[in-house]
Amino acid sequence: MRVLVAMLAVMALVGCGESVVVKEWDEGEAWDQWARGVEAKFPVGDAEGHGPDVGSEEWARALQWKLGTVESESHGPDLGSAEWRAAVEEKIGGLGE
Fold first, then answer.
1. Is residue 18 situated within a structural domain?
2. In this structure, which of 44, 72, 87, 96 has its CB flanked by the most CB atoms within 10 Å?
3. Is 90 helix (H, G, I), strand (E, B) or coil?
4. What sign does the CA torsion over 26, 59, 57, 15 have?
């Protein structure tokens, strides 16, 4: 029982962390289309479909680490910003638009 209580306490503390607010994600369909285009060209998950939901904050974080658009100290463009998107597109060679 103590282990369960400790696990719940840790999960609650982890959930209290600062979350990144990304205005571009509020664009809805435009963000979803962009994210699907990036995922088609540079998959974050594996061939079996395992990985974060395309377009989610978790997906964006995994993408930036996989592409190297952020340094080990997490320095780089703000997640989801226009500058961040440009850095992603530069790394993957554009979206062919």
1. no
2. 44
3. helix
4. positive
